[in-house]
UniProtKB/TrEMBL annotation:
Annotated source species: Parambassis ranga (Indian glassy fish)
Highest taxon, organism lineage: Eukaryota
Domain annotation MaoC-like: ranges: 37-140
Protein name per its UniProtKB record: Hydroxyacyl-thioester dehydratase type 2, mitochondrial-like
Gene3D superfamilies referenced in this protein's UniProt entry, alphabetically: Hotdog Thioesterase
Amino acid sequence: MSFIWRNVCSNRQLCLSSVTAAPLHRRLLHVGQRASLTKAFSSRDVELFAELTGDTNPLHLDPVYASTTSFETPIVHGVLINGLISAVLGTKMPGRGCVFLYQEIRFTAPLYVGEEVLAEAEVRKIKMSFAFIAVTCSVKDKVVMEGEVMVMMPVEQQEKK
């Protein structure tokens, strides 16, 4: 519950303060709630990620090397794909203030540079201040990553007032 402070003045010399309860506007998380975003990673995105992390595996950066693999062309770093899930959780659901605690993910197919990927999250269970969320990243009908995560919900979403 939050409070609004008001000054009640009967005249210019005497001012009393009063407190009244103000309703809270809470966006509560619930089982079945979903959120998503889409993104296409460019070769520059992949290069920047490699620079930031030091993961310069030629499978991601070198078309000549990638052509010698089963993928045939460079693929996006898996952890970069996973970053989309972090973006969904931190900006959409549960949203700002949530803390990413645990994940179990599988990379089931490659994501190629330029493919538009859909990152989706769905709340499966809520226990106390924790939300258990199913996550997937897909390109059309091709799932490139799937799994489950656990987050600590922001304080304002932990209980209904």
